[in-house]
């Protein structure tokens, strides 16, 4: 289309006149009142009117009710619809079906054994009650035979006839009917007597076995009929405490009582909650009820989650039975409410599947706990570092010990356990540990640093091994199950657990080095089979440095007090998204949110493995390791050499090998001279170890121009300045004189 700007023949003055002239050829004056009247149906609609009724074929306004109404039956709607499974979950899960079958079989067997043992007792009770039952039968038949049920009515009529003579006729009528009724019932009594006599005659002529059987039947029948109403014959083998079903009315009433502004406003507008439930409330796994709630617009599920205690009170259920969560896959306002029959913190948990037998393959999911529905919750430890956080005495150390037990049950792995709390909670693992220490004294921290340096060096070795492997053996440049089983490569899994890790990160002398090594292990270690598991009771920026917490994949958060601690363990914005470990109560020990294993965090209760049970598992794990030939380090009696870390004269030794004429030296040259100076201390000492040792004194490598007199090489490489070494010595001595820790 050609613009009129490019046509000199276009008359702009005439066009402007047409636009401004209300009587121009294209102008039309619209009567708004008439248009509104036609829209309301008070006038005949004009087919050309833009505001015509949609039912007459006119256009539909975008803000009209017709435009906002969703089509009920469309192909796209059915294609996007979620299909519900044909079979229930317990039939589709082999483990759950087997568990239910085992439970039902056990219940039936318990009932048979329980009542079978009490058969003599039941027989004695029946024999004692049989005469009473016979009396009841004879008495009842006699009352029926002589129509004694109507006797009170007849007596009442007699008493009434004293003041009302006309009632005498009523009495005569009742008497005639009673006589007629008794006469006919008497005939049945004669027939019954004949049958009884005949039956007794047959029994007298029958064998002893038949007589005994008939007597037994009679005793059972009359014994049951003679039982008191409040004393049943059979004892109770299983005591049931059935919970009341969860209903939509109950959920709506409970949510309305929480005083959440958005819910209150919706109710004031007349919302009765009938549209809040996109799916029926259903029974789940036979242990509770599951309700999906579409909260009113503007109300998020996290507002309900943080009022879990009030919600449990409104539902009149124990706090440990009520578990609200947010379904963020739909939207933040979709609430999933699971109400269990039994308190999760007090309900009997399934036994740990690996308690008495079995080994572990760390490349596969392993049992870690059970969710509120009683289903097994698993965890995959390979390729993932882990953070565990909680208040004291809520199961943090037990969770870490459970993780290390899983690592120990893989015969290929190394286990390194460091209990910086010092109470010995990880001591059951000592017989299988490549490195083990309990305590936070200076010697213990030195041991930790030495072990971490060893693992750090092992990580660098592994990266070179993986880099040099053929592509067909290592297609993804990471440790696989097959590579870990190849003992020649030395790529076995390594699991490191540090309880109260903040004691190491905050150490004044070695904290920076521990933090740096751990951060590197968290970043690069999982790909080469090294898994770092950290536990702390004080989740903050100091106890969990950002470089570590931001790169951990698995996160398990038990009870914490605030949003900061919650997000430090579970991840940024978890609290805002409704994943709040602050909702757990004081008795929810061992219960927490596990994030990183699936798409969404899940609530679970870890398997409770006490000290003796842990020792039994470790004993079995050590036997498996002995068969595999993997007893190393501390478990084999090897004492870790901490001399290189313990040397307090590292600054003096470096200064001693740097002459005044050599203000700068390469790190490789310094290491050679240190080995010549003190072979017993610095044999095998590397440039990386030198860098880490001097870092504790605030020194870092710099570019130094120099040469190696042994090889004649010269150039610009990393090293240290002698002036920096002397300054560090002066600072250390000054701090020591002021009472500061070096």
Q: What summary fits the major beta sheet? A: 10 strands, mixed
Count every helix, treating DSSP H or I runs of 4 or more residues as helices.
28
For this structure, the quaternary state is single chain
Tell the overall outline.
elongated
Low-confidence stretches: 1-7, 42-56
- What's the overall average pLDDT, rounded? 83
- What percentage of amino acids are in beta strands? 5-15%
Strand adjacency order, main sheet: 6-5-14-13-12-7-11-10-8-9
Quantity of strands, as a count: 17
The radius of gyration computed from the alpha-carbon positions, rounded to a whole number of angstroms, is: 43 Å
Q: What share of residues is helical?
A: 40-55%
Distance between the termini: 84 Å
**Structural class by SSE content:** alpha/beta
Structural description of this entry:
The protein has 742 residues and is α/β, with parallel strands linked by helices. The chain is 44% helix and 12% strand. It has 28 helices and 17 strands. The strands form 3 sheets. It has a 10-stranded mixed beta sheet with strand order 6-5-14-13-12-7-11-10-8-9, with helices on both faces. Strands 1-2-4-3 form a 4-stranded antiparallel beta sheet. A 3-stranded antiparallel beta sheet has the order 15-17-16. Helix 24 packs antiparallel against helix 28 (722-737). The radius of gyration is 43 Å and the shape is elongated. The protein starts with 11 loop residues before the first helix and ends in a 5-residue tail after the last helix. Mean pLDDT is 83; it is low at 1-7 and 42-56.
């Amino acid at each position: 289309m050609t613009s009129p700007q490019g046509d000199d023949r276009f008359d702009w003055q005439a066009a402007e006149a047409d636009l401004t002239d209300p009587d121009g050829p294209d102008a039309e004056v619209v009567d708004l009142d008439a248009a509104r009247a036609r829209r309301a149906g008070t006038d005949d609609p004009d087919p050309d009117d833009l505001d015509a009724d949609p039912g007459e074929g006119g256009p539909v306004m975008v803000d009209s009710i017709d435009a906002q109404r969703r089509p009920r039956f469309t192909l796209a709607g059915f294609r996007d619809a979620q299909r519900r499974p044909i079979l229930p979950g317990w039939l589709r899960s082999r483990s759950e079906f087997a568990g239910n079958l085992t439970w039902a079989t056990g219940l039936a067997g318990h009932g048979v054994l329980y009542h079978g043992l009490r058969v003599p007792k039941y027989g004695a009770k029946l024999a004692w009650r049989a005469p009473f039952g016979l009396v009841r039968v004879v008495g009842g038949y006699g009352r029926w035979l002589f129509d004694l049920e109507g006797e009170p009515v007849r007596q009442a009529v007699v008493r009434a006839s004293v003041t009302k003579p006309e009632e005498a006729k009523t009495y005569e009528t009742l008497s005639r009917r009673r006589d007629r009724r008794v006469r006919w019932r008497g005939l049945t009594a004669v027939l019954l007597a004949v049958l009884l006599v005949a039956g007794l005659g047959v029994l007298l002529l029958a064998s002893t076995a038949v007589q005994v059987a008939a007597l037994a039947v009679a005793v059972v029948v009359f014994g049951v009929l003679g039982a008191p109403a409040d004393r049943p014959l059979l004892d109770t083998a299983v005591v049931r405490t059935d919970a009341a079903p969860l209903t939509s009315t109950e959920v709506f009433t409970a949510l309305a009582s929480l005083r959440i502004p958005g819910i209150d406003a919706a109710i004031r507008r007349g919302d009765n909650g009938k549209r809040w439930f996109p799916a029926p409330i259903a029974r789940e796994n036979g242990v509770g009820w599951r309700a999906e709630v579409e909260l009113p617009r503007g109300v998020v599920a996290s507002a309900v989650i943080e009022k879990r205690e009030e919600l449990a009170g409104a539902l009149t259920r124990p706090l440990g039975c009520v578990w609200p969560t947010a379904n963020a896959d739909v939207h933040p306002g979709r609430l999933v409410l699971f109400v269990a029959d039994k308190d999760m913190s007090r309900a009997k948990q399934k036994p740990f599947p690996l308690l008495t037998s079995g080994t572990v393959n760390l490349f596969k999911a392993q049992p870690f706990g059970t969710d509120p529905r009683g289903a097994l919750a698993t965890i995959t430890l390979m390729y993932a570092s882990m953070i565990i956080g909680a208040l004291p005495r809520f199961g943090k150390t037990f969770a870490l010990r459970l993780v290390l037990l899983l690592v120990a049950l893989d015969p290929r792995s190394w286990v390194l356990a460091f209990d910086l709390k010092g109470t010995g909670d990880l001591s059951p693992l000592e017989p299988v540990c490549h490195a083990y220490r309990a305590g936070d004294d200076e010697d213990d921290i030195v041991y930790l640093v030495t072990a971490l340096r060893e693992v750090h060096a092992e990580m660098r070795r592994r990266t070179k091994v993986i880099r040099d492997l053929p592509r067909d053996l290592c297609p993804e440049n990471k440790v696989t199950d097959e590579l870990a089983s190849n003992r020649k490569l030395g790529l076995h899994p390594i699991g490191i657990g540090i309880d109260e890790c903040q004691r190491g990160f905050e150490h004044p002398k070695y904290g920076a080095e521990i933090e740096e090594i751990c951060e590197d292990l968290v970043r690069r270690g999982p790909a080469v089979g090294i898994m770092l598991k950290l536990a702390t009771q004080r989740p903050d920026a100091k106890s969990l440095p950002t470089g570590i917490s931001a790169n951990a994949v698995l996160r398990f958060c038990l009870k914490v007090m605030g949003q900061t601690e919650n997000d430090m363990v579970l991840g940024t914005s978890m609290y805002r998204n409704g994943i709040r470990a602050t909702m757990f109560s004081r008795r929810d020990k061992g219960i927490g949110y596990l994030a990183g294993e699936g798409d969404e965090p899940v609530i679970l209760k870890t398997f409770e493995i006490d000290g003796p049970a842990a020792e039994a598992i470790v004993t079995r794990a050590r036997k498996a390791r002995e068969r595999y030939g993997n007893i190393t380090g501390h478990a084999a009696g090897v004492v870790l050499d901490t001399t290189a870390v313990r040397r307090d004269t590292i600054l003096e030794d470096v200064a001693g090998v740097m002459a005044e004429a050599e203000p700068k030296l390469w790190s490789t040259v310094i290491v050679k001279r240190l080995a010549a100076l003190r072979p017993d201390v610095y044999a095998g000492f590397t440039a990386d170890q030198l860098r880490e040792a001097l870092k504790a004194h605030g020194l870092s490598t710099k570019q130094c121009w120099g040469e190696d007199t042994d090889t004649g090489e010269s150039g610009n490489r990393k090293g240290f300045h002698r002036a920096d070494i002397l300054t560090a010595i002066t600072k250390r001595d000054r701090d020591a004189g002021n009472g500061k820790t070096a």
